[in-house]
Amino acid sequence: MKGIIAAALLLIATPAIAASQVEEGRYQAVLGDCAGCHGKDLSGGIALETPFGRLVTPNITPDRQTGIGDYSPVDFRAAMKTGIARGKPLYPAMPYTAYARMPDRDVDALFAYLKTVRPVRHAVKVNQLRFPYSWRFLMRLWNLVFFHPGTPDPANHTAAWIRGEYLVNGPGHCGTCHTPKNMFGADIRPELGGALLQGWFAPDLSGDPRTGLRSWQAADVAGYLKTGRNGHSIASGPMAEAIEQSTSRMRDGDLAAIAAYLKSLPAPAGSGPRILPDVERMKRGASLYRVNCSACHGLDAKGEGPLVPPLTGNAVVRQDNADTLVRLVLAGSQGAGTRWAPTRPAMPSLAWRLNDQQVADVLSYVRGNWGNQAAPVAADTVGGIRAALRGGK
Ligand code: HEC
Ligand code: HEC
Ligand code: HEC
Asked: How many angstroms is it from 252 CA to the middle of ligand 2?
């Protein structure tokens, strides 16, 4: 009798368990930002320009011919955690090196969720890399040399830190953009130390007072990730996308955990000496700033409420690498729009108004003024980015 009751209870409970597993899986897809690379409907086709050529993301809807409808849960775990998709080694542009940290329970939930999305018939030619990178089997060697998943020792850390460390280095794969890479595309130190990607610079997230997040409170970090802006900065480019698709949809507790972890990162040893700008350049830059920038950003560069970011204490301004900055001034940009802060403030393109030397001068001024201490920008750097933008990159 007891057995029958238990069996009946199980029958009633199973759909509920399945439904909550799908819900949990949906959240795992948010944490991992699958849509960021595989597209909003997950049917792939988004081109990723890598230093090795182009990879186009595959279809991961449950379509049997062109998607992952034929995957078993075991196949899916192997793809997510070892980078081997049904016997085929994946390129690490798919962040399995980070997803390897995810517990099987969460990967299984994610798979259960993926089974429920609308199957889309969409065949994609993934591998458009240059020779010899197009030789997929080389990735087995890559894994042998560079892929060593591990978990830090949780001793002496708070629950929030442990969760935050896991989210940043696991499903959130923040290092995919923020950690510098070697010539084989593998992570190098300093972790989260800032890196260049597709013409944008993903800033240093360490506690470095000049280039990092030292001047941000934990609440500033969480607010930026949730709404796309805070008193220091407004996200644009690839970060605006990551915020819209992923971090703005994360639970508040998870954002607080990420902030706690990032704020615990120390400044790297021997970080940044003060760089003195040259006086003549500063004068030229100051007058260019007055004419071209101050109407919006203010003469004191304090910005304008939630719509125009300040240029003081702004880490985008202070990074060693000025590519993002040059790109912003030449091409303009549109800030993130989230449920929490829907207007998308725009910075106009000034490429038509300023020549390379003028852009270099005004940015050198901005980078060397109001307590900012970043190196001047060369006119050649501006010329290179202007050419790349013209080439449609
Ligand atoms: C940073 C971009 C990026 C993100 C984020 C990303 N992927 Fe991928 N994914 C790729 C690329 C690129 C490939 C193709 C790699 C290859 O074929 O070598 C891929 C391949 C895959 C494959 C293998 C498909 C096959 O059979 O060839 C699966 C499964 C997959 N991704 C699932 C996911 C899931 C689930 C998420 C979210 C948790 C996710 N991906 C997030 C870029 C990404
Ligand atoms: C697709 C690449 C990409 C991913 C993934 C990504 N970021 Fe970013 N991030 C950027 C770029 C580019 C910027 C600079 C944005 C700008 O210039 O407005 C940035 C800016 C930031 C900033 C502001 C830094 C500053 O000093 O202004 C924070 C904080 C941040 N990211 C945290 C994260 C966290 C946490 C994650 C993982 C959950 C993450 N990012 C994932 C590309 C990325
Ligand atoms: C018409 C108003 C306007 C003018 C003129 C303008 N900006 Fe902006 N700027 C904005 C807005 C709005 C944003 C936020 C949009 C975004 O981040 O995508 C912004 C963003 C920026 C950022 C990125 C800050 C961050 O936190 O991401 C920098 C740097 C910047 N502007 C520098 C300049 C410089 C230098 C000039 C002059 C050469 C200038 N701006 C002229 C409105 C303006």
From this structure: 18
| Predicted local confidence at residue 340, as pLDDT | 77
CB 319 within 8 A of CB 374: yes
Pocket of ligand 1 (CB under 6 A): 29, 32-34, 36-38, 48, 55, 57-58, 60, 68, 79, 85, 90-91, 93-95, 110, 126, 176
C-alpha–C-alpha distance, residues 236 and 327, integer Å: 11
Q: Are 118 and 186 in contact (CB under 8 A)?
A: no
Cβ of 310 closer than 6 Å to ligand 3, yes or no, is no
345 lines ligand 3 (CB under 6 A): yes
User: Does the Cβ of 216 fall within 6 Å of ligand 2?
Assistant: no
How far is it, in rounded angstroms, from Cα 134 to Cα 192? Answer: 28
pLDDT tens digits for range 38-54: 999 999 999 998 888 89
In this structure, are residues 200 and 206 in contact, taking their beta carbons and an 8 Å threshold? no
Please state, in angstroms and rounded to a whole number, the distance separating the CA atoms of residues 282 and 12: 73
Residue 365: count other Cβ atoms within 10 Å of its Cβ: 24
Amino acid 14 reads T
- In tens, the pLDDT along 86-113 reads 999 999 999 999 999 999 999 999 999 9
Q: Which atom of ligand 3 is nearest to the CA of 315?
A: 26
Tens digits of per-residue pLDDT, 109-166? Answer: 999 999 999 999 999 999 888 888 888 888 888 888 888 888 888 888 999 999 999 9
Q: What angle do CA 72, 163, 75 make, to 5 degrees?
A: 10
Alpha-carbon distance of 182 to 391, in angstroms, equals 26
Residue type, 166: Y
- Rg of the chain taking only CA atoms, in angstroms: 23
Residue nearest to atom 2 of ligand 3 (CA): 296
Task: Between 338 and 292, name the one with better pLDDT.
Answer: 292
Q: How many other CB atoms are there within 10 angstroms of residue 64's CB atom? A: 11
- The number of beta carbons lying within 10 Å of the beta carbon of residue 99 is 25
Count Cβ neighbours within 10 Å for each residue of 246-273 and write b for 16 or more, e otherwise: bbbbbeeebbbbbbbbbbbbebbeebbe
d(CA 282, CA 365): 5
**Amino acid identity, position 261:** Y
